[in-house]
Amino acid sequence: MPSPSAPTAYTARNRRLNRIEREEIRPTRFASAVVKAAPAPVPAVVPSPFGDLSNAGVGDLCAVVTEALAGTTRSTLAKRRAGVRMLFGHLEEQAGVTWQERWVAAGFDGDARSITSLARPGVRMDRSNLTAAAAVAFGLRAIRPSLPGLRAIKLAAYPETFRRLAQDPYLDAFFAAVERSPALTVVHRRRVLFDVVCALTTQGIALADLTPPALLHYALESKRRGLTVGVTGNTTRFAALAAWEALHGFGHFPVGSPATLRTYIYEGQLTIEQLVDRYGVRHRGVRQRDCPIFCV
């Protein structure tokens, strides 16, 4: 029990610091715990699990799909190759040298157009084949979509497709940790994995390069554009809340990083004056730092 001469201030900050001191200290892959939202920098080694496919021929892409999805049924492989031929056949007609340039030129990287617009009228399988082809193209890193371009496509099974194509043991370990987490419901597990692979896809990075600022950038952009998983169209809800906690619990984030996205203060620690300003207090005496209401 603290002595009367040394009262303890039970503020939110103290509680966070006490919790951090109690937590097991784990090694981290990042040197700094300072969190400012920003896209991940271009990594020294760009992910390319099946080599550089930025301007590979359509036939070569189909061959890679066959290799990458070895073990799936002949019917599934045939559908994936049909989707690849349709999607990349259309992109071949667009301006640009790389598939990325042609993807942008085709108008698929903005808010307006989805690749399912390429489906032929009356051909039932075209939409699903095109959607699956896009998932494969993103997972193979042949195309890096923007966040709106990615979310314009309904990629229900995308996390598992991405994981399989990534061939990244570290990502495999994270998936396994999420799947066995007792703290997450089935719905939240799916959202965690979807948010993480979306961030990796749109920023062109591997999980090892997903820093707190990079995930915060994804969360803020999803919120700003109304693309938060589960509440699409709502610009008041943050994405990646559960993903942040899962990565933190996995030991991926630096020691000292907030355990939850909700404890993150985007513009840094606010001063007392800034906190008071939130409530519109006009009385000069009340606004003073040494006012008794601020004492603990």
What does this structure look like?
With 296 residues, the chain is mainly α. The chain has helices at 12-22, 58-68, 74-92, 99-105, 126-139, 147-151, 158-166, 169-179, 186-203, 212-225, 241-249, 272-277, 284-287. The protein folds into three domains: 51-148, no CATH class; 156-264, no CATH class; 269-294, no CATH class.
What can be said about this structure in brief?
The protein has about 300 residues and is an all-alpha fold. It has 13 helices and no strands. Helix 7 (about 160-165) packs across helix 9.
The description of the largest β-sheet is: none
Helix and strand content put the structural class at mainly alpha
| Low-pLDDT runs | 1-33, 265-270, 289-296
Give the N-to-C terminal Cα separation. Answer: 17 Å
Oligomer: single chain
Name the average pLDDT: 83
Number of strands: 0
Q: Approximately how much beta-strand content do the residues carry?
A: under 5%
Radius of gyration equals 23 Å
Task: List the main descriptive attributes of the protein structure presented here.
about 0% strand; disordered C terminus; mainly alpha; about 300 residues; globular
Topology:
Blueprint: H1 12-22, H2 58-68, H3 74-92, H4 99-105, H5 126-139, H6 147-151, H7 158-166, H8 169-179, H9 186-203, H10 212-225, H11 241-249, H12 272-277, H13 284-287
